[in-house]
C-alpha cells in the first residue's frame, strides 16, 4: 500500500506548525465536511522520519476504529519494533469535529499558497512526544485499502464485524487459526514449538516481537475474538 508522505516539521521554540517547509497558521485551515461520513475513512500521516505515525481510521458494523501505528528502534538488536495505540469512543459530529477518550481534533482542508486543498485531520493534543510544545499537528489523508493493510489468511477478522453464520460454517481448526492470526499480526510470541508457534513461523509475514499484545487490539478485534471463541 502506498501512502502520501507529507513532511511536517515542528519548531520547539514557538507554536508555529510547518507543513512541507511552509508555516501553517489556523487561517489556512477550513472545516472539511463531506457529504457522507465514510469519506473520512483513510490513513492520516503525521510527522517525519522515525517520528512519523499513521492514524488508520475506518468504519465497520457500527464500530469506528482509529488506530495509531508507530514504533521505535530497539537498542540491543537495532531492529524496528512496532507499536499500536487504539483511540476509544471515537465520535465525529456534523461539523467534522473529532473526539475520542484520548485526543480531540477537527477534520479540515489545508489550503496551500497555490490554492490546493489537502484533506487532513488536525489533532489539538497530539500523541507525538516530540511536539509537546506545539498547539496542534496536521495529518494528511491517503486512501486506506483495508484488504491490502493486513497479512494472513483471514484478514477480515481485523477490519470486518464477523457474523455467527459464516463462522459456524468453518472447521474448528480454521477458527483457531483465524482467532490467533489477529494476535500474530501484532507480532505476538506464541508458546515455543506449540501448534500456533509452528504454524505462524511458517508464514513469511509473521514477525514475533511482543509477549503481550492485548493493548494493541481494537474494539472490533476484541469483539471478533470473543465471537470466534464462543463458536470454536
Automatic annotation (TrEMBL):
Pfam families for this protein: YARHG (PF13308)
Superkingdom as given in the UniProt entry: Bacteria
YARHG domain location: 151-232
SMART domains: YARHG (SM01324)
InterPro entries (alphabetical): YARHG_dom, YARHG_sf
Residues of the signal peptide: 1-16
Keywords on record: Signal
Keyword rRNA processing: no
Protein name: YARHG domain-containing protein
Organism the protein comes from: Algibacter lectus
Amino acid at each position: 500500500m502506498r501512502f502520501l508522505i507529507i513532511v511536517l516539521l515542528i519548531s520547539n521554540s514557538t507554536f508555529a506548525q510547518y507543513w512541507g517547509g511552509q508555516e501553517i497558521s489556523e487561517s489556512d485551515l477550513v472545516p472539511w465536511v463531506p457529504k457522507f461520513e465514510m469519506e473520512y475513512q483513510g490513513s492520516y500521516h503525521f510527522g517525519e522520519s522515525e517520528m512519523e505515525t499513521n492514524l488508520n481510521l475506518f468504519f465497520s458494523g457500527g464500530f469506528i476504529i482509529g488506530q495509531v501505528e508507530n514504533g521505535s528502534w530497539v537498542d540491543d538488536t537495532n531492529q524496528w519494533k512496532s507499536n499500536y495505540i487504539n483511540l476509544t469512543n471515537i465520535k465525529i459530529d456534523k461539523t467534522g469535529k473529532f473526539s475520542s477518550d484520548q485526543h480531540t481534533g477537527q477534520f479540515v482542508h489545508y489550503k496551500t499558497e497555490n490554492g490546493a486543498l489537502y484533506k487532513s485531520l488536525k489533532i489539538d493534543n497530539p500523541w507525538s512526544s516530540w511536539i509537546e510544545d506545539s498547539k496542534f499537528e496536521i495529518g494528511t489523508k491517503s486512501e486506506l485499502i483495508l484488504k491490502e493493510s493486513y497479512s494472513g489468511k483471514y484478514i477480515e477478522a481485523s477490519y470486518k464485524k464477523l457474523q455467527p453464520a459464516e463462522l459456524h460454517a468453518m472447521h474448528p481448526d480454521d477458527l483457531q487459526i483465524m482467532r490467533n492470526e489477529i494476535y500474530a499480526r501484532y507480532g505476538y510470541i506464541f508458546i515455543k514449538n506449540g501448534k500456533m508457534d509452528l504454524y505462524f513461523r511458517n508464514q513469511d509475514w509473521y514477525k514475533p516481537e511482543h509477549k503481550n499484545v492485548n493493548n494493541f487490539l481494537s474494539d472490533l478485534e476484541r469483539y471478533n475474538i470473543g465471537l470466534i471463541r464462543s463458536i470454536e
